Amino acid sequence: MSGASVGRVRLGLVGVGRIGAMHAHAIADLREQFAARDVDLTLAVTDVAEEHARAVAAEVGATAVPGGAAGLLAAGVDGLVVATGTPTHPELIRAGVEAGVPVFCEKPVAGSVADSLPVLAHVAEHGGTVQIGHQRRFDAGYLEARRRFQAGELGWLHSFRAVTADVSPPPVAFLATSGGLFRDCSVHDFDILRWITGREIVEVYARGSNRGDPAIGEVGDVDTALAVVTLDDGTVGTVTATRYNGAGHDVRLELSGSDASVMVGLDEATALRSTEPGVDFPAGTAHRTFAERFAGAYRNELAAFVEVVLGERDNPCPPDEAVAASRVADAAQASLASGRPERVELG
Ligand SMILES: NC(=O)c1ccc[n+]([C@@H]2O[C@H](COP(=O)([O-])OP(=O)(O)OC[C@H]3O[C@@H](n4cnc5c(N)ncnc54)[C@H](O)[C@@H]3O)[C@@H](O)[C@H]2O)c1
Predict the structure, then answer these.
(1) Which end of the chain is more exposed for a tag (fewer CB within 10 A), N or C?
(2) Which atom of ligand 1 is nearest to the CA of 184?
(3) pLDDT of 177
(4) Does domain 8-128 have CATH number 3.20.10.10?
């Protein structure tokens, strides 16, 4: 339970860069929904780029607070939203937990599993609540895939195919600290596969390539990668990611079962064109960014966080589950480097 009194939730958001600014808008959009439930949702934001924080605050009707997370916590917040770069997550999670407020932190918990474990221990020691931003758990398509799979409608899975394809790479400066393509992008696929199937991923065999900007290779990353993934019941599948999908931002999951098969992300906006005569599906405009593709999911996960702050629901994405996905990403990065299949270290 949190210190928030029913009727008011003051969120503090630290970091209003690419995703933080989106979260600021999403929280602003949630105000009406919570007002209808007699909850006054307010937002204060901070960023080391103070002028930018003031600009975002003005856009969304929030307050800009100087002094980073410490400034927000001193001003008094009921929940802390962390959307800074990955290397700062551990210290900001600790700060929120020590202040006794629930924390929503963008994925991942830390840059590596090794750096995440002391954070998990600290959270447990303080009895803290930390929700990690695996927004696909709030996306309608993934939710429905999970429901159908868990209801037994697909029978047993013979294979799966997960895709995360960005239109173009983020700045190389971001990639240099992102931990690599599997940790930055495919970690969402690893999390959702564990969450949908309820199984552990026990082995990954990864290959990658660099056919785009050579600067990506120079910071030690690949622009495209594929991992053959094995679950603990023997099911096999693939997880692919790229930074160069000109057709659009394409996030899909095919679950192929003994009785039925489904695909998440198959709609008019799917960034594919059929080569079959007379087939004009999908015919819509493809998404260009994760912001478009997952706008609803980001809003839903933040609404869930407000409910966590209010003590109305359990934490939908605890940090140990996020770290389990990060263990798979670590093994995939290791496999890329070794050129061999790697076992996933189970926690
Ligand atoms: N869930 C998703 O789909 C998703 C998508 C993109 C990014 N992310 C995650 O979100 C995080 C941020 O990514 P981004 O692309 O928005 O990065 P970004 O670099 O665009 O933004 C980070 C912001 O944080 C600010 N900042 C950094 N350290 C700070 C500090 N100590 N105090 C206050 N402000 C600070 C920076 O000035 C910047 O404005 C990353 O960890 C990334 O993995 C998640």
Answers:
(1) N
(2) 43
(3) 85
(4) no
